[in-house]
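Incident log entry.

Two folding requests arrived from the same account within the same minute. Monitoring flagged them as a possible duplicate submission, but the sequences differ. Recording both here for audit purposes.

Request one:
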Amino acid sequence: MKVLFVCSRNKWRSLTAEKIFSGYEGLDVRSAGTEEAARIKITGGHVGWADVIFAMEKKHVRRMKEKFQEMLPGKQVICLDIPDDYKFMDEELIEILKGRVSEYLEIDL
C-alpha cells in the first residue's frame, strides 16, 4: 500500500510519520508539504502515486482539494488532526501518529 503523509513544511510531522512507518512490511511511504517553503513540496505525482493520504490538519486537506481536485476522487484522504506543536521524532508525536494511523491501516505496532 502506498501511503503519503502531508503537513505544511514537511520538516516535523509528515517527515516523522514517513520515518516511523517506512519500516512496516507492505507499506511504501512518502511525505510532502503543502507550503512553498516545504522541504519536499506536494505535487500531482505524489497524489497520483498514493493509495492513502494522511493530512495532519484540515487546512492540508483543503489545500490539496484546491490544487489537486481532479486527482482526489477515489483516494482515501484522512485528516489526523495533529497540530503543529511537535518537533521531528518527538516521542508524543510518534505515539499519536501510531495510534491514529493504526485505526486506518492494518499494521502490527
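Request two (distinct sequence, not a duplicate):
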Amino acid sequence: MQISDIQLRDPFVLPRAEEGSYWLFGSTDKDIWKGQATGFDCYRSQDLDTWEGPFPAFRPRPDFWSPTNYWAPEVHEYHGRFFMFATFGHPEPQVRRGTQILVADEIQGPYEPHSNGPVTPSDWECLDGTLHVEADGTPWMIFCHEWVQISDGAICALPLSGDLQRAAGEPVELFRASMAPWVDPVSSPRHGTGYVTDGPYLHRTAEGDLLMLWASFRNRRYAQGVARSASGTIRGPWQQQEEPLFEADGGHGMIFKAFDGTLYLTLHSPNETPFERVVFIELEEDHGALGVKGAA
C-alpha cells in the first residue's frame, strides 16, 4: 500500500539500517476517541512510500486494565530490547489516563506490559510519554500533564529506573503551553477554555543543541512547535520558538534520519478522524534551530 492509504495518527518511525527497513507505529484504531480499543499495528517500508502491513504489534490480554483510548505508541531500542511507550485510557473517571511502558524482543512485537500500569502519576491526567536518555545515561520519560485537568497544559519530565519499569523520582515541570507565543487557547463544553500540550519528542542537533517538538493549536488548527533547552539538558530552561514549524492542521510529530542522511519531520495531517494521514517533511538544521527545507 501507499503511505496515503494508511489512516494513522501520531506517527513514529524507527529506521533499522541492518535490515534496510523503516518501521511505522502510531494510533491505528479507526476511531481512537471512543469505543473498545483493538491495539496497535505497525508497517514496514524500504522507501517511505510503499508499505507492508498492517502487522499486529500489541493486542491486550483479557485482563489488561485499559479498554479504550489507545494512543501514540513510540518504540525505542534500549539495551538490546524494544520498548513501547503508549497512552491508555479508561471510561471510569477515577482511573486516570497515562503512559505505560511495554516491551518486546523484536521490533514488530508482540509487545507485552513492562511497567505495572502507567508510569505517569496515578492521580494526573497524562498522555504522550516519550523516552529521552541524558548524556550521563539517565533515562527520562517526557510527557504531557493534560490541559483537561490543569487548564494550562504542561510538559513534564520523570526520571525512570534503569530498567524502565518504574519512576525513579518525582516529575519536574518543564514549561506550560501558554508560554509559547504562537499557541492559542481552545474551548470545549466539558473542559472550558485552556491551552493544549501534545506529543513531546526530543531531538539532539548535529551541533549538540537539545530541541523538543510539541504540538498545540493556532487559529483553531493543530500545529507543531519547537522549544530549545538553554542548558542542553532536559531541565532547561526551555525557550520557545516564536513561530510554529508547521501550522496547516497537523502535528504530534517526531524526527528521524533516512538512510541517505535526509532529516525528516513526520506528523499526521489533517487532525480530523478518519482523514488523518502520515506526512513526511524534509528539515534542515541552522545554528541550533529547525526549519522546513526550502521554506522562505
